[in-house]
Amino acid sequence: MDVLATTTAPLVEIGHLSHVYRQGGAGDHPVLDDVNLTLRDNEIVALLGRSGCGKSTLLRIIAGLMPATSGSVAIEGGPVTAPAPQVAMVFQSFALFPWLTVLENVEIGLEAQGIGLDERRQRALAAIDLIGLDGYESAFPKELSGGMRQRVGLARALVVHPKVLLMDEPFSALDVLTAETLRTDLLDLWCEGRMPIHSILMVTHNIEEAVLMCDRILVFSSNPGRILAEIKVDLPQPRNRLEPNFRALVDDIYARMTARPTGKVSHGVFPGTGISMVLPRVSPNRLAGLMELVAAEPNNGRADLPEIAGDFLMEVDDLFPVAETLQLLRFAEVEHGDIRLTEAGKRFARAEPDERKRMFAQHLVTYVPLAGHIKRVLDERAGHRAPASRFRDELEDSMSEEQADHTLRAVISWARYAEVFAYDEDSGVFSLENPS
Amino acid sequence: MSIRAVANNARSLPLGLGPRGLLPNLYDVIIFILIAAAFVAVAHGIREMETPLAKLDLAPVTLDPAHLPEYALRTTLRMFAAILASLLFTFVVATLAAKSRKAELVIIPALDILQSVPVLGFLTFTVAFFMRVFPGSELGAECAAIFAIFTSQAWNMCFSFYQSLRTIPADLDEVSRHFRQSGWLRFWRLEVPFAAPGLIWNTMMSMSGGWFFVVASEAITVGDTTVKLPGIGSWLALAIERQDVKAVGLAVATMGVVILAYDQLLFRPIVAWADKFRFEQTAARDRPKSWVYDVARRTRLVRVVFGTVSSATAYLALTRVHPRAPTRWATPSAGRGIADALWIAVVLAAAGYALWLVVGYVRASLGIDDALTALWCGFLTLVRVVVLIAIASAIWVPIGVTIGLRPRAAQWAQPIAQFLAAFPANVLFPIAVAGIVTFRLDPNIWLSPLMVLGTQWYILFNVIAGASAFPTDLREASTIYGLRSAQWWRKVILPGIFPYYVTGALTASGGSWNASIVAEVANWGDIKLKAVGLGAYIAQATEAGDYPRVVLGIGVMSLFVVVINRLLWRPLYRFAERRFRLN
After folding, report:
1. Where are the alpha helices (DSSP H) in A312-400?
2. 3-class DSSP string for B394-412
3. Domain A274-431 class in CATH
């Protein structure tokens, strides 16, 4: 994958790794597909992709928390068959033990290694000091803010002196300002070489975060997760978000992540075709909101997605599903990080509520195969009623239970808005009648 | 303890209402048969040893008030011995069920049924059994009493712990595996602390229920043998025999003092302490308070003692650590399916044998008529339970709501309701019986209220907890839109407290079945009052030493309770969770 391979075994080496999520009987659901990756000394690498692209699964496979279906994982040349001692992980949810103090939480890894109390205490205090937590030793996690909690998570990982630090969306549960402070502090420690680690591998869905922190970015596609592109970031540290080169790189990655998969007939970017398309749960209000935003001055029907995201402090995971649903409904086109409203989309943005509902209903039944399918079944049946379980079973033939649930709920919410058909939660039955 | 803590804890599932399916499945039937067979085996074994129970050289219980403190102490000690046994049982059995699929297949349905078995009916066997294990020794009778309390306490604790183990948050599980904690360290650092709030709450509930059984199990007559262990229960039995109202009054007062002391010195400090184990990442606004806990924390001596204990446990946790060879992932193999099938085959074979044993035993001495009689009695008791729960609900729901919506009143009323729930109602029975005798009332009707005397409080304090947790904004909204009274009850508050009410009513109904065994038959000196019902059926069979009928009665009662739980309470609970859970 890279020409600069050194003679010593790389810290982490992954070859042709694939992972399949098995579900009872209904078929397998691929999560990762033929992933190759090498992590060397002294670099920060990002696994960048949207939620559900399997990047967190990959991190857990590297950590030895779960086995891959096929392919090889090696740390310093040795195959991974159990939780590996050379790595330490920082969790998105912090994963602190609420009944232990900060000090005890930091000590947990040392305690498991059977290290004696004195050495444990000394090392834990050093880590707490390094990460800027002094004075909080006896506090309980629930007394700390999110940023402080993640610092505990970091200290807990560093104290066991790992070679590789794995970070799973470490800043995404924090507010914008706190996250930025923590990123900067971490980068300072890294650049000054004060952390006892050789490399960092982090999972993120935040493009700017990846560009800000990493030396290399591996962009993942979704369903199944594949490496779409490898991007080297040569900008010098500390990096400035407003610098033109920085912006250009962010725009470039946005474009790659919204590029249409070539050679595929599937409309939109949702996995699956026909009624087995996995749909995201996006509320009709957000769809209408984005269309209005793009239609209005100064955008006039065309806008830059990274810009919108930046203006509203949103992240890719918030924005992409909305844009792509619009694309599926033929209200917009998404390409190269831009969103452009179609004629129908522009008309929708100008229309009155009743007209909007009419348009939405028409597009929904025509362009969302599952909605059209449910509508046809209801039309054909004498009583115009059909149980949801029927469609759920159909969906579960080609997707996981959870995805089927999300897809069905997405269609229900859109159909309710468009008044195409009704759904009764208690009985789980679709019908054509509207409650009057 | 604070309302909030109760509100949170009331959410820990009362029965096996958790992850398992709704429908009674084949496994329930199989396990039911296995448990019935175990009863039969014990009964059969006792009959084989037809020798009379060895006479005990117990110091006779006297009605001398000077002995009362000692009796109270002995009763309390029995209680704690049982709770320790229950904890130990919980740690071992629930852990086994959570870690081994094979064990889980048997243990979980078994717990589910065992907690429906009327403990008091079981007393006959345990007394006879333990007296034979320790012939002529007081230890046998003590063990029997402790075992009886244990059987009233262990199952829900075990369930709670098992459910906690099964719902350990994925990220903490990953941390534990990631840092390669040994199984021992993981147990003390992750599993026990995470399970602590639910387990402590269930232990407290078990303790509350246990007082009832400790009183009932101290003085027990099996056939010709009457055993009276020194304790409040025996004092009470003697007072009833002698129709001594003053002694009954003293027993009531002593019990009140004991329960109050237990509540203040143990219950509340532990709940206040256990608050730190609550799996919440935000600090609670009102935390459970306990003056004893506050004093203890400030006292140097107590701090030193606690510090020593905690570092000793830490040492214990660590000494067993061998930085173990990290566990490899279990490789899924075809062998596992075959092993499971084999295991199920073994269980099925055992069930088949058990069925044969049960049918053989019951048919040897009982006919179809006896079964019909037991079912009819069961139906009568069912009617009593249903009517009484309905009446208790009609009384306590409005009162509970009124109290719960007034925070100051709730602060006062909640501990009282919990105190009343812990107070063993059977201590009060003689007073009621004396009343029935005096006014020549019909025992078929007037003995019935005794069944809910102790259990109605569960409805009250759950409703108070529910009303206290009712969101202020919803109350304000209904005030602003001027909802009328009937509408307010129907659309606002009843749905709001429904999940809590179901929890309370479920506990109350289960307790009432159990109480029927001591409530449907009552004595006052020579006067015997009896209502027709399954409880009386079991009580009389016990007194006569008629083991087949005891087995039949217990079996029928368990069947009633299991079926009602499955057909009524469980669906209601699910419905409440789905539709009415706020937040």
Report:
1. 316-328, 343-350, 353-367, 369-380, 388-396
2. HHHHHHHHHHHCCHHHHHH
3. mainly alpha
Cross-chain residue pair B181–A108, CB shorter than 8 Å: yes
What is the SS3 assignment for B519?
helix
Residues of B in contact with A109 (CB under 8 A): 179
SS3 of chain A: helix, strand, coil, percent, to 5: 40, 20, 40
Chain-chain contact of B178 with A142 (C-beta, under 8 angstroms): no
CB-neighbour burial class of residue A194 (10 A; exposed 0-12, middle 13-18, buried 19+):
exposed
Strand partners for A45: A201, A216
Phi, psi of A313 (to 5 degrees): 50, 40
**How close is the nearest chain B Cα to the Cα of A54, in Å?**
17
CATH of domain A12-257: 3.40.50.300
Does residue B394 carry a pLDDT above 90?
yes
Respond yes or no on whether ipTM tops 0.90.
no
Of A65, A82, A94, the CB nearest to B328: A82
Closest CA to A62 of A134, A153, A167, A136: A167
Is A109 in Cβ contact with B179 (below 8 Å)? Answer: yes
Q: Hey, are the CB atoms on A95 and B172 less than 8 Å from each other?
A: yes
Residue from the list A81, A83, A149 with its beta carbon closest to the beta carbon of B180: A83
Is A98 in contact with B189 (Cβ distance < 8 A)? no
Of B124, B288, B289, the closest CA to residue B220 belongs to B124
- In tens, the pLDDT along B49-58 reads 444 555 555 6
Q: Which residues of B touch A100 (CB under 8 A)?
A: 189
Nearest-CB residue to A108 (from B189, B276, B281): B189
CATH code linked to domain B367-583: 1.10.3720.10
- Residues 299-318 of chain B with CB under 8 A from chain A are 318
pLDDT band of residue A165 (cuts 50, 70, 90) is: very high
Kindly report, residue by residue over A19-74, the tens digit of the pLDDT: 887 765 555 678 888 899 999 888 999 999 887 778 888 999 998 888 888 888 99
CA angle, residues B138, B66, B430, in degrees to nearest 5? 75
Ordered by start, the domain boundaries in chain B are 71-278, 291-324, 337-366, 367-583
CA dist., res. B341 & res. B335, Å (int): 10
Residue B501, CB-side half-sphere exposure with 13 Å CA sphere:
25
Location of each CATH 1.10.10 domain in chain A: 274-431
Q: Which CATH number, 1.20.1630.10, 3.40.50.10800, 3.60.110.10, 1.10.3720.10, labels domain B71-278? A: 1.10.3720.10
The percent of residues in chain B predicted with pLDDT above 70, rounded, is 80
The sign one gets for the Cα dihedral B561, B564, B570, B572 is negative
pLDDT band, residue B357 (cuts 50/70/90): confident
Same-fold call for B71-278 versus B367-583: yes
